[in-house]
Amino acid sequence: MVRFIEDGDWFADCPVVLDFDGVQVEVCHRKLDELSIGWDTIDAAADIAGWEWFELTPQWSQRDERLEPFVGQELREVALLEWRPAGHDLAAGTVAVEFAFAGGCLRIVNGLDENRIEVGAAQPDYVRHRLG
């Protein structure tokens, strides 16, 4: 995850990069309807360039308290979750990526133009599309 050096805040516009024993998965939501999923394309050890004009300095971080419970656990399932609420909702149709582990689930969801992280059971308004 990318955090700002000055205050440690998470920069939710940047991809969330997860490492599974050397296989890197990169997830990033943008706008209301764009989702990018990549594998092994981002060098999270490299400095982030092009931000000299900005007042804060982004830097890759290897830790996040929401992800810590899943470190070292076996990945059991990956699914795409489509948000389909009963009523009108601006986020309807957005897709989250869910990683299921023995100790629970981690989702990277569309936070309406940025990434958001959720843990635990998914809300019932999601339609699950299992992968693999």
Keywords for this entry:
132 residues, mainly beta, three-stranded antiparallel β-sheet, 0% helix, globular
SSE series: EEEEEEEEEE
Radius of gyration: 15 Å
* Uncertain residue segments: none
Widest sheet: strand ordering: 9-8-7-6-10
Walk me through the structure:
The chain contains no helices and ten strands. The protein is mainly beta and 132 residues long. It is 0% helix and 45% strand. Strands 9-8-7-6-10 form a five-stranded antiparallel sheet, with no helix packed on it. It has a three-stranded antiparallel sheet with strand order 2-3-4, with no helix packed on it.
Short structural description:
The protein is globular and about 45 Å long. It has 132 residues and is mostly beta strands. The strands form three sheets. Strands 9-8-7-6-10 form a five-stranded antiparallel beta sheet, with no helix packed on it.
